[in-house]
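Revision sheet: structure tokens.
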Amino acid sequence: MVAERTPETPLKWAGGKRWLVPYLLPLWNAYLQATPHGRLVEPFCGSLSVALGLQPERALLNDLNPHLINFWRQVQRGLTITLPMTNDKTLYYAHRARFNALIACGAAESAEAAQLFYYLNRTGFNGLCRFNSSGQFNVPFGRYKTITYWQTADFMRLAAHIAHWTFTVGNFEALALQPDDFIYADPPYDVEFTSYSAGGFSWADQVRLAEWLSAHRGAALLSNQATARIVDLYTACGFELIYLDAPRRISANGDRSPAREVLAARNVDIATVKTQSNTGKVHEDMVKAALISGGYAVVEQVKIGKRPTGKIHKIDLIASKDGVNLLISLKWQQTSGTAEEKIPFEVICLMDAIQNSEHYHRAYLVLGGNGWSLREFYTRGGLEKFLAYKDSVTIVSLEEFVKLANMGRLHQKAD
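Predicted:
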């Protein structure tokens, strides 16, 4: 049975926070219990991954990028796709030139500009959104083999989810806050490259944001890369901090290994996040987000037959792409325990499932958590000495699996 999925963003976005939604959701739900008609405020709404994941009735969604906000407003109104959209270099540069021409002549707030923005985002290099000092979009053509573009019907379905949200363009300090607003801020990372819009986002802007969040009487949360100065800044401002490993989504050098991030909270009880960050549920949500990012269709909790013991064999996930179906078994051990002693039997069960069905082509056994004493033994193939399984099962760490899933390379091992 396929679990009901939350609406997905149509955009590729550097630093997208879909993976963070499982951590934020219990905080949001607790807030709604105390404030039933509360409002979500995002000063840097980006691809809407968080808003779509939380699904608030009321939301104030802001960004400094006017082209992004025009896109969302046009989607809200019912964006109709009339322009050709193919993964073609010549077409890409023609559409980029047209988009920049619309900017130059003051027509950037049009439905045509929104279509072009979407196309350039999906087709350009690594989904970057970058403008030069003159305000012209200058991202080069991407390197994707295939791209699935949304059609009008897809945007119509999304429009129903965002119909009652308010979109604004401007500096976060200009937002008209209410005392009980739930603020989630996801500013550009504290790194050298911060030109997500003309003008960039400097360290002085990071400090202004921290001070602005500190002055809010209601719930305030922020996520950022866990640099030393970000940690020091939010500690000094009285925020409670927790640290999370974020799966990278977009990287120029191909490194999509987990990145250390900080979640800073003020006027919010984040004890539930601290507990949840060490559970298999988050492990599963992170894996699902990585698979979806890599273009896989995902089905959860599927009965695939019986184990050798005669008991029902229910697999955590099945991921499908290009006609290849992958069985994915997730094992979590945060502290020393018995989970690792059961790995050989799990491998046998996965081998048996593949041998007895023509529908499944390969299996991944994913080891998450910090409590494994035999993780290296398993992931380096030590078990192969006793059990010949490598033709059908791959044992891999959570970090390596997320990296491969994000790049859409898991099914290639099954060729």
